Structure prediction request, 214 residues.
Amino acid sequence: MIGYLTGEVLFSDGKEVVLKTKDGVGYQVYLQTLLVEGTEAELFIAHVFRDAGQELFGFTTLRDKKLFELLTSVKGVGPKSAYSLISSLGSETVIQAIQLENKKTLSKAPGVGAKAAAQICLDLGNKIQNVLIYKGNKEGDFLSATEVRENIGEASNLSMFSSVHATPILEEALMACKELGFKEDLILAKAQKILNENDIQRPEQLVHLVLKEV
Prediction:
């Protein structure tokens, strides 16, 4: 099974790439990134076996590859739908949407309907943090133990994935809830989810809806 390729870019059109390795073999890989022909490239590969043949899906980071593999474990989500989610939304947005059960965001990806989005949230809600041990850049494959703890801790507060949590409405609502005796780590995810799914204009609106769900 192929998991990684490095070689010369013979062809790239933003949809697929042909990568020639040092042994002279050219691999055709799905890749939603335009590469410069004639340059050297390295890709993490998800090798998919199907009845009609084999397909290679390329990723620039190991985190993207692991997220893809997790998405394809969901019933009804094929490799092309999983790849569409990552390439069109970005891995951080996908992870955030799953944590917040934001099915509307997931269904924005081509080929991903409301039913598939709901199934993804249901199946991966408790598993999505597993991909956070892998780096989201090319500077090495794995995070250190300290980075893992920091990464997962930040993800649980959603601060690493979204700047929305810093909006005045959310800050004031959180402050009001804490004054009522609620801990921030208990209400933050609920408040963020409500903000994403509703047209909230005032902090008191958000506080009211959060308290209904606590």
